[in-house]
Specification:
CATH class of the largest domain: Alpha Beta
Number of strands: 17
Largest sheet: 7 strands, mixed
Structural class: alpha/beta
CATH topology of the largest domain: Quinone Oxidoreductase, Chain A, domain 1
CATH superfamily of the largest domain: Medium-chain alcohol dehydrogenases, catalytic domain
Number of helices: 9
Order of helices and strands: EEEHEEEHEEEHEHEHEHEEEHEHEH
Shape: globular
Distance between the termini: 13 Å
Radius of gyration: 21 Å
Helix content: 10-25%
């Protein structure tokens, strides 16, 4: 057994607190990871507070995990001790359904869908009389901890020229935005709108620009104009879309739009900006959205869709893409003990881009 320490929430109304536990030693096909960094995702906050009504307590978040391999099972061939590796949102799937066989584990159609890095099966398990499920577990503990044990084919390689702390948010925020940009074929010369300029919007803009697209960022914060200019993107304030002149300037001009706002929002003002046959895709928000005005959609054969993270192959792809183009999320390193304050700042929109936890601060603060 691997003695470990992490931070968990025991109830939706409690903060995260230290929690000592043990990980099982790696099985034949598994890799044990000594965690160095873990990104803080807005979905961690949603999960801890049970905003989606599916949280399994105690809840130990963390699905943007980077660390070094400390031991491997007997049949592991993809990774070796000392390798810098990452783990994203998934640590297993049914492996037998059509999406899994096609390399799209993030759309697993097995009995419990994919197994999340924390909070257990992404779909509530259909319990058998002995309380077991497809994975033999009802909960999983994530990367707000000192160790993780994962099947080798769900472990990613971190490129040597990508800083591990920068790589961490790419494992969720990066692939969540890269995957739809890639799926909808964003290419050089396209005009792409990014709605929201927080953690997801930041990396989405950088990825689209690296793909050769012209990017327009839509934000409610005038203070973010300077940062957008630094990236080489234009900015439109959301409220300006109510002005006829602004709307006319951008109407039917965008090849693709990506909404990165992590909560319920009204997307109706953005739909007229799409060209004929263009799509607006929502990532980051998993709750019911405001009703769509269907007068604006069929007249130009526009589409509104959604996207759920990305596959394991796409996650490796975006890591390699970021390394090749020397891009990554803007981050702020924090100590583990400051996580509850970090959550408050994220919810109050007081933080710029992504927090990343230095797990050495957890190792140093408590004796394992």
């Amino acid at each position: 057994m691997i003695k470990s320490i992490g931070y968990t929430a025991k109830h939706s109304f409690n903060g995260l607190k230290p929690h000592e536990f043990e990980r099982e030693d790696p099985k034949e096909n598994e890799v044990a990871i000594d965690i160095l960094f873990c990104g803080v995702c807005h979905s961690d906050i949603h999960q801890v507070k049970n905003n989606w009504s599916n949280t399994v307590y105690p809840c130990m978040p963390g699905h943007e995990v980077v660390g070094r391999v400390m031991s491997v099972g007997a049949s592991v061939t993809r990774h070796k001790i000392g390798d810098m590796v990452g783990v994203g949102c998934m640590i297993d799937s049914c492996r037998n359904c059509e999406p899994c066989r096609s390399g799209e584990e993030n759309y697993c159609e097995g009995p419990n869908s994919w197994l999340a890095t924390y909070n257990g099966p992404i779909v509530p398990a259909k319990k058998s009389p002995d309380k077991s499920n497809h994975y033999g577990k009802d909960n999983t503990f994530g990367g707000y901890s000192t160790s993780l044990v994962v099947p080798e084919d769900f472990v990613l390689k971190i490129p040597s020229n990508l800083k591990p702390e920068v790589a961490a948010p790419i494992l969720c925020a990066g692939v969540t935005t890269y995957s739809p940009l890639r799926h909808w074929g964003v290419k050089k010369g396209d005009k792409v709108g990014i709605i929201g300029f927080g953690g997801l919007g930041d990396i989405a803009a950088k990825l689209a620009i690296a793909m050769g697209a012209q990017v327009i960022l839509f934000t409610s914060s005038e203070q973010k104009t300077t940062e957008a200019a630094r990236l080489g993107a234009a900015v439109v304030l959301n409220e300006d879309l109510e002005e006829e002149e602004t709307l006319r300037a951008h109407k039917a001009s965008l090849d693709f739009m990506l909404s990165t706002i992590p909560e319920k929002t009204d997307l109706n003002p953005f739909i007229p900006l799409l060209k004929r046959n263009a799509s607006l895709v929502v990532v980051g928000a998993l709750e019911p959205l405001s009703s769509m005005d269907n007068m604006e959609i069929p007249g130009h054969r526009r589409s509104v869709g959604g996207f759920l993270i990305g596959s394991i192959a796409e996650t490796q792809e975006v890591l390699d893409f970021c390394a090749e183009h020397n891009i990554g999320p803007d981050i702020q390193i924090i100590d583990m003990k400051d996580i509850n304050d970090a959550y408050d700042k994220v919810e109050n929109k007081e933080v710029r881009f992504r927090y990343v936890i230095d797990i050495s601060s957890l190792k140093n603060s408590l004796a394992v």
